[in-house]
Amino acid sequence: NNTLTIEYECVPTQKTLLNMTNHLYFNLSGSTKECVLDNHVLKFACDNKLKLHKDGQPYLIEPIVKDGPFDFNNGANLKENFEKGSDEFAISVAFDTPFLLKDGIIQLKHVPTGNTLTIQTDQKAVVAYSACWFDENLTFHDGTIGYKYNSIALETQDAPNGININDYEHNQIFSPEHPYTQKTSYTFTKE
Q1: How far apart are CA 95 and CA 39, in angstroms?
Q2: Which pLDDT does position 90 carry in this prediction?
Q3: Per-residue pLDDT for 170 more than 90?
Q4: How many C-alpha atoms does 161 have within 13 Å on its Cβ side?
Q5: What pLDDT does residue 88 have?
Q6: Where are the beta strands (DSSP E) in the chain?
């Protein structure tokens, strides 16, 4: 059914801070030569994101500005949103942004091919990372040399650094009586 599901379960032996994710990278064009910012539309319901400190750590909940660079509520082209600019891009280079999800559904679509990825998660956040630090030290399976923005990771998790963010209701302390679980599914379709 074109779905990959990742389920995590961890039962710590004592109280433990835990926030797991994965780093699957996607470029739905089918080519490692096409920049992921081009022709990819990202969509998810989100009212707030986490602001990055100058050291790169998320530290503050802030609202999404309608039609701003971090607004993907109605679907937005990654490149068009990036070109709107943000002071945070001086820290992260492009998207390396924690978003607080409203419903756990994320969609990425490559417009020319119709290739679509729908992610469903039970987690409260996703970090959208646009491979800002990929470079020529990375070689892909087809021999293509790595470069910035060649793919995007959509890292489902609780809010990174959530335990240290005021007014954030984190669920990041686990124990034998309170085990960690997470489930995220990735479904690939063509529209």
Answers
A1: 16
A2: 92
A3: no
A4: 19
A5: 94
A6: 3-10, 16-17, 25-26, 40-52, 58-63, 76-77, 96-110, 115-121, 125-129, 152-157, 173-174, 180-190
